[in-house]
## 1
Amino acid sequence: MNEVIETIKNRRSIRAYLPTMPPADLVRDIVETGLYAPRSMGSESIRTIVITDKIMREKIVELNCQIGHWKKGFDPFYGAPVILLIVADRDDANHLINGSVVIATMMLAAESLGLHSCWIHRAKEELEHPLGQEILSRAGIFFRPGQYVGIGHLALGYAAGDPPEPEPRRESRISYIS
């Protein structure tokens, strides 16, 4: 089977991570693939913020627990040592689609490099909170209020255990018109 197709079919969302920090060069390679993701009209409005700072990570976990109405102590990023926050300029008419393709591309890159990931929502709400503005500022992203919208997060790291087996797919979801 083609290596790309095999990677796509083997990728799983992981919901338990080892605390081991992945090598910085692997994280950089994954994030860089996001720059090459397909995008409408050549848009470059998507920004990826790599968060490995433990204090900032804990702030993000706490805020996401509030947003998701989870009890303190739950980690909505499943212990992943790296959180990628994908944001987009709201003025890009296709920001949600472009940002989603960036996330999907980075998920496949992670799988191909032996790392695991899980797409996490709530980035929109996070960026609407003062912590979101602090994150943008610390990342050196200059903005006017409301300019950037959160598209999603990518929890990134090594799986704590074996990834789950794929569930059967319903072929009836494919139709052909010949």
Note: Helices lie at 3-10, 24-35, 54-68, 95-112, 123-128, 130-138.
## 2
Amino acid sequence: MFTGIIEELGTVESLDLLDGDAARLTIRGPKVTADAGHGDSIAVNGCCLTVVEYGDGLFTADVMRETLKRTSLGTLDKGSTVNLERAVTAHARLGGHIVQGHVDGTGTIASRTPGEHWEDVRIATTPDLLKYVAEKGSIAIDGVSLTVTDVDDASGTFGVSLIPTTLELTVLGRNAVGDTVNLEVDVIAKYVERLLAAGNVPGNGGTGADNGGNVRDNGGDR
């Protein structure tokens, strides 16, 4: 589990595609590898990956087909900058929100509007993801825990506001309009939808009626 508070900006050393079905990703991140061990979890642009090799400030992770399909990791190149966060420990402060590292899908940066003290950013995504996004709710964008400022169903977009620290210390400060970002919606919303669809919520009549929602598989390796 993660909190969406980015610890370090890493650099992609290599991305080796394996028969188009999987990939092996190697990233330089001296901070997140300082206490790394085999099997540890590190979120890369919000995707939970498992460390299979590490040393000299580098770590390598295997990326399966499901992750390549649902996230933007397959588009990374040597030299790409990525957000990195180690899994949270039991005694750490939960500075952001509960982030699983299970990416639900992607969005596109629709606009950026700089302000004097922050920058407003709009993200476009599909209706099946936008239905989970709520004003003043939490969302992880490329692994960054953010608060939704508004949702516009008509345009298929939602807004977030980025403070100077977020712009400086995460890849969101470098992304341009048109760039693809990974999205993880609030896990509670997905569980509520699943329970309602299965008819397992006390007081709903036990009809088992499908509410039309689709439960998404995760985009992480864990």
Note: Helices lie at 65-70, 127-130, 164-169, 187-198.
## 3
Amino acid sequence: MDSRTEHGRTRGEGPTAHHDHERRFQSPAMRRTREILCAGARGHTLEVAVGTGRNLPHYPPQVQFTGIDPDPGMLADARNRADELGMPARLVEGDPQDLDFPDQTFGTVLCTLALCSVPDQQRALAEMYRVLVPGGRLLMVDHIEYARLPGRLVERRRENPRRLPREVASEVGFEIGHHDRLLLGLVERVVAHRP
């Protein structure tokens, strides 16, 4: 794990109660987005930054699931949730910028509301591209860059400025099939595939 990821991981560690609070107060639009994206998963599926496993209840039963996250505390919560659901799940600690899987391993890669916290978004998406089989799909929803002042000035000062997820995905080679905005335009949903 690179030092920036390690720093973010240790900053993000907090009591499980905080994650439970977030789970209970999810907007209906985000809940529905999770349902839609997860329903599109097929075959061997990798969720990047699985966190506490909020998406696990929404996956189709035939999916062969692997989740990766840099935070061992969140992975423990995800393991508990998978056990409660009776869902076979491989959950591993790792860096989204350096996925420890062979090339062309997964048919689907999913990432929800996590790319904006990854130090190098382009590197993370290039890794997602690498581990997908040709024709494999990327399912993603994330916060977008601020387009207006003063937000744009604040964003430029961030260590890891947000960008439009679909633009970064396109830069690493994905073909965008669908994209739209949610939550007053602050979040972008993307469906793409590796050619």
Note: The chain is about 35% helix and 25% strand.
## 4
Amino acid sequence: MLTFAEKVVLFNKQLHYKGNLPSGFNVINPYLDNPETLVVMEQFYQKFYQDNLQRKFIIGINPSRHGAGVTGVPFTDTKRLASACGIKMHSAHTHEISSVFIYDMIEAYGGPSIFYKQFYINSPFPLAIVRETNPNNWINANYYDDKQLFEMVKPFMVESLKQHIAMGLETEEVFVLGKKNATFLAKINKEEKLFGEMIILDHPRYIQQYKSKDKQHYIDNYIRLLSGL
């Protein structure tokens, strides 16, 4: 039987988006772009997921180009990969604000070893999406930013979610990051019947960007909801 870590590594190694995209959008696949991404991603999952425990699913939107778009680990920039997870990446150095909140919350929960034994984080579209605003100027994009984009990537999202669930995730309740993300996932869930209850958490980027003064309140709320209190 494969361990949880081995299942995730296999999933990531076979990731390849072959679908269409609207003009001005592109997909970044860090596992194809940087050989070290595969190395550190595998080290991360071997360190925290080398077991067959069933975990709760925390669902993001899609990776940012400075977080999992580089490290291959959701909500983990190279700074947190080194400081919190003990895994150094030499070919890239990134700072991603959602990663700051997630790892402050993980630390408050009890640290990465405790947190990752109970939870698995990924996204319905598990590769970074970028949009060209000016010639050769690309910014992060969300799968729901454009109606045509969503319709084009939706089959890939559904298949990715099904593959995640098959790894051995709990499905009676899932945790969704971001209200708009939850709206779109609710549409998918109505059609596909993938999950039971969807518990919505404010997105880390929103908290860091607009609610940083109340950060501790949001961390406490995350821990309360994740703990089922």
Note: The beta strands are 25-28, 56-59, 119-122, 128-134, 137-141, 173-177, 197-201.
